[in-house]
Amino acid sequence: MLPIYNLKANPCETLDRNINVNFSTSYGKLTYDFNKTTSQISALAQKYGHKEHSFFAAGLALINVEHEYKMRTEFSKIDGGYCVFPKDLDIFVGFSQPKIYVSNQLKKNTCAYKMVILHEQTHQRINIKTLDYFLPYFYQAAEKIMREIKPIQVNNILEVKAATLKLTEEFASKFDKILALFKKELALEQSKLDSKSNYSYESSLCRKN
Questions:
Q1: Distances (CA, A) of 25 to 4, 62, 67, 84, 195
Q2: What is the pTM of this model?
Q3: Which 8-state DSSP code applies to residue 55?
């Protein structure tokens, strides 16, 4: 018969914990740039991995996906040291610098001019709708990760700061996977607007006029 060992539970994991997640977001403030040529906009699109076709190369919608995590911890005295555990999390996921570029080579109030603006505005609306869809998921995921992160036991109070950094990095490594999923879904939704069939349809609207 194998010997039976009486394993002592980690004292840090038995402490009562109250987790608080403060989530914030932003769509950013949309701005327009009408000062670049079509070739300059195309070069900018290529730089950011965007591919436009037909006269839609005369327009471009850009946005930055931003995120920030700030964790505060608490510590409790135990025999032989301290327990450091997550307490509060300030998390931001949102957009910054949403911008629409429209070529200065397009004549104002023409069909092509209006269609390019409408197309790029639709890109920005897709950004907002996709973010809105993911917001509850972001919050739930952040709370779940915070609850699942195990406290760290340290020998003395001078190690609390390093433990807090380690806990924050653990949260980030897990939540970054959620962000990657969001960015993938965002790109998928945008690709539907940039499909050849939609380009053909939108272009035909101006050929009819």
A1: 52, 18, 9, 28, 29
A2: 0.85
A3: G
158-177 pLDDT per residue, tens: 899 999 999 999 999 999 99
Task: Map tokens 């996906």 to a residue.
Answer: 65
Helix (H, G, I), strand (E, B) or coil at 137: helix
For residue 51, give every residue at least 6 positions away whose Cβ sits within 8 Å of its Cβ, in sequence order, or none.
45, 194
Give the span between the Cα atoms of 167 and 46, in whole angstroms: 38
Paired with 21 in beta bridges are 89
Place of tokens 């608490």: 74
Please name the residue that has the structure tokens 């509060």: 88
Say whether pLDDT at 60 is over 80. yes
Per-residue tokens: 90: 């300030």
| Interacting residues of 197 by C-beta distance below 8 A, sequence separation 6+ | none
Q: Find, among 124, 112, 117, 115, the residue nearest to 102 by Cα.
A: 117
- What pLDDT, in 10s, does the model give residues 80-96? 888 999 999 999 999 99
